Amino acid sequence: MTNTASQTDAEAEQIAAEIDSLGERLQSLRSAVGQVIFGQQAVIDQTLISLLAGGHVLLVGVPGLAKTRLVETLGRVFGLDDRRIQCTPDLMPADIVGSEVLDQLADGSRSFRFVPGPIFAQVLMADEINRASPRTQSALLQAMQEQRVTVGGQSYDLPQPFHVLATQNPLEQEGTYPLPEAQLDRFFMEVDVAYPDLESERQMLLATTGAEQAEAPRVFDAEELIAAQRLVRRIPVGEKVVEAILSLVREGRPESTGLEDVRRHVAWGPGPRASQALMLAVRARALLDGRLAPSLDDVVDLAAPVLRHRMALNFAARAEGIGVEDIVEQLCAPHA
After folding, report:
1. Looking at the domain assignment, is residue 114 inside a domain?
2. Does 281 map to a domain?
3. Residue 112 maps to a domain
4. What does the alpha-carbon distance between residue 198 and residue 205 come to, in Å, rounded to a whole number?
5. Residues 229, 272: one domain?
6. Which of 88, 119, 144, 253 has the maximum number of C-beta atoms within 10 A of its C-beta?
7. Dihedral sign of CA atoms 301, 302, 305, 306 in order
8. CA–CA gap between residue 329 and residue 272 (Å, rounded)
9. Are residues 204 and 83 in the same domain?
10. Phi and psi (nearest 5°) for 313?
């Protein structure tokens, strides 16, 4: 056995040991969130996967489905500093990133001082993000991609880790501004929040209308989350999984696909950032489940939340009643 092979085996053993030691903590974290958020296990898992992968999340659902509660709970169990902004049409970029104020010193001289905005947090919740104007929405672009903001020509680094968890109401469209494609692409996943089933809603009803309400305990801290995010990037991915990711994403592009429905119905398909996100997502899911490597099932199961906000359908698709989910299902069929 060569030295290179020995080093590879040693690294694999170390990764396996780290996954085993982290697995129990992640299950405790999963359970802690589930004690507060009822009947949304898929939503919880997809959001946890996004955070473990270091990404941002767009939560889409009707009012009253505990989207805000989920973000607050995640901040608590991860031990992160969290802030919330309520997006409205009159919200300005300075209300998010901060602004410079002119101070007069004791000697009579004046200087500008930067006053940080709520974006300087480890978890920023942007509630009803599509109610903010395009100018204000763009204030988040640099922060989400580069982990810093620029004010007055000066760059300021954001706390680490940094995650934006935004909510969007799919029903009320009056007074809203659709998110541009460039910003949608910055979100690691678009997580659909559906109604809970009957038994989960029964549990929620009993748990939230009594004298006391359960609070999730702190399980992680910021340094442990950063360490888990680093571990995600070291998890090995098999060649079949890599090929499935590349095939699935590239088949979603009208100019390179072999699928007739994609050519006819897709206006524009997912870019390379979708491949990167899906690769990290399957690794993070393997870590969350305590597995040593991702599988093809992970690719199929996570394709929709990773791809649906990175694709747009044309008028012909809407006229025929075809949705993005239908296209993603076709893309996943050869790998299911």
Report:
1. no
2. yes
3. no
4. 10
5. no
6. 119
7. negative
8. 20
9. yes
10. -95, 155
- Boundaries of domain holding 140: 12-90+121-234
- Reported as type and span, the H/E element at residue 35 is none
Say if residue 57 is in the same domain as residue 188.
yes
Same domain, 157 and 81: yes
Single out the residue of 69, 30, 75, 68 nearest to residue 49, CA to CA. Answer: 30
Tokens 């988040």 belong to 140
> Per-residue confidence of the chain (336 residues) as pLDDT tens digits?
333 344 477 888 888 888 888 888 898 888 888 888 888 889 999 999 999 999 999 999 888 888 888 888 999 999 999 999 998 889 998 899 988 888 877 777 777 888 899 999 999 999 989 888 888 888 888 889 888 898 878 889 999 999 999 998 776 666 678 888 888 899 999 999 988 889 988 988 888 887 777 788 888 889 999 999 999 999 999 999 999 999 999 999 998 888 888 899 998 899 999 999 999 999 999 999 999 999 999 999 999 999 999 998 889 888 888 889 999 999 998 887
Using the Cα atoms of residue 124, residue 137, residue 180 and residue 186 in order, give the sign of their dihedral: negative
Segment 248-291, tens digit of pLDDT: 999 999 988 888 888 999 988 999 999 999 999 999 999 999 99
Considering the domain architecture, whether residues 39 and 175 belong to the same structural domain is answered as yes
Domain tally for the chain? 2
Q: Residues 248, 225: one domain? A: no
pLDDT digits (tens, 9 = 90+) for 313-324: 889 888 888 889
Count of beta carbons in the 10 Å neighbourhood of residue 35: 15
Say if residue 330 is in the same domain as residue 310. yes
Residue 275 lies in a domain: yes
- The answer to whether 50 touches 271, Cβ cutoff 8 Å, is no
